[in-house]
Amino acid sequence: MNTNLNEVLNVTTKMNTHKANTYSPLALAYIGDGVYELFIRTYVLSRGNMPVNKMHKASRELVRATAQAKLYHLIENMLTEEELQVLKRGRNAKSISAPKNADITEYRHATGVEALIGYLYLEGRIDRINEIIEIGLNAL
């Protein structure tokens, strides 16, 4: 497969031609889940070299719905009106899948956080994602 690395790296620029608010909350959560996990994995890696299994366990604890639900409550009062609307749209979205390791309320709050992260990512607001995740990491 001949994929130009610049094309891959510029995907958010291409996505930016469509406003992030045109995507469904679950589509935002879909991309937000991946972005959030990448940020968490980068954070875990930055804590020093360790066995991959240990990194995986540390990451897993931070990306669980329970941790994301806590983040939801930590950040909801510091968001702009626009961000809060995205967070709530994500929280209220009805997903077909059921949570495996969380109750439905935690799962919905986690979906709200993921939708917000996805929204910010598509808007190119990486610094804001960093700020929000840092608040969660400091509290958790």
What would you say this structure looks like, in words?
There is one protein chain. 30% of the residues are buried. Helices cover 71% and strands 0% of the residues. By secondary structure, it is mainly alpha-helical.
Could you name the key traits of this structure?
8 helices; 140 residues; disordered N terminus; mainly alpha
Approximately how much helix is present in the residues? over 70%
Instruction: Tell me the total number of β-strands.
Output: 0
Shape descriptor: globular
Query: Uncertain regions: pLDDT < 50 for 5+ in a row?
Result: 1-9
What order do the helices and strands follow? HHHHHHHH
Structural class: mainly alpha
Main sheet properties: none
Average of pLDDT: 86
> Number of helical runs?
8
Radius of gyration: 15 Å
State the separation between the terminal residues, measured CA to CA. 41 Å
Strand content: under 5%
Brief synopsis:
The chain has helices spanning 5-9, 11-15, 25-46, 52-63, 65-75, 81-92, 104-122, 126-139.
Sequence-ordered SSE layout with sheet pairings:
Layout: H1 5-9, H2 11-15, H3 25-46, H4 52-63, H5 65-75, H6 81-92, H7 104-122, H8 126-139
Helix pairs in contact: 3-4, 3-6, 3-7, 5-7, 5-8, 6-7
